[in-house]
Amino acid sequence: MTGAAPNERRGPFITFEGGDGVGKSTQIARLAERLRAAGREVVVTREPGGSPGAEAIRALLVQGAADRWSARTEALLMFAARADHLERTINPARARGAVVLCDRFADSSMAYQGIAGALGREAVATLGALIVGADGPTLTFVLDASSQEGLKRAGARGDGDNRFEAKGAEYQERVRQAFLEIAKGAPERCVVINAARDIDTIADDIARITFERLGAA
Prior knowledge:
This protein has helices at 24-37, 52-62, 71-95, 106-116, 121-131, 147-157, 169-185, 199-214, and strands at residues 13-17, 42-46, 99-103, 139-144, 190-194. By secondary structure, it is an alpha/beta fold. It has a single domain (13-214), classed as P-loop containing nucleotide triphosphate hydrolases (Rossmann fold, 3-Layer(aba) Sandwich), CATH 3.40.50. The longest helix is centred in the middle third of the chain and has 25 residues, at 71-95. The chain is globular, with a radius of gyration of 16 Å.
């Protein structure tokens, strides 16, 4: 892993988390537009994926049968993709002062594999310490909506990347509760956003919080 020196001034790293279909990609696009209008360089990326190597691993993770991988194998694949993503995309962008906006990051591994997938917090936390270390996000928005609504929206996309949605409503509700639990445990970093509201209201809230947190960064 190519982490930055502790005293190096880096660009902000903002992640968007939540269950499937809660509108993360839409809100990332809205925030990126506002940040660019304010003169900031913005890099928009996603997980799993975000670099050539990580995108290759993404296909293994999001396609195929729901039971294709165990929670342990999923986590290992996710963190392998994450290591490449950090090395090739996130850390270089932050090193030059860009704002990085990422659709999912390590909190998703904790929610999907560590809590909902029953791998356990300790195993995912160990992988996170090894792969992410001090390169984690500075701000995380957890978009929250009912699991039923999320599944409905995700199904309407029809993009074929539906392996996790295929695990069913009960699993998706466990994921939702896991994200809320993660946010409660890290209030200095995580902000829960009610994603059941209209898109413009959500975008306004996210932009306001982001600019307040960025300050002079």
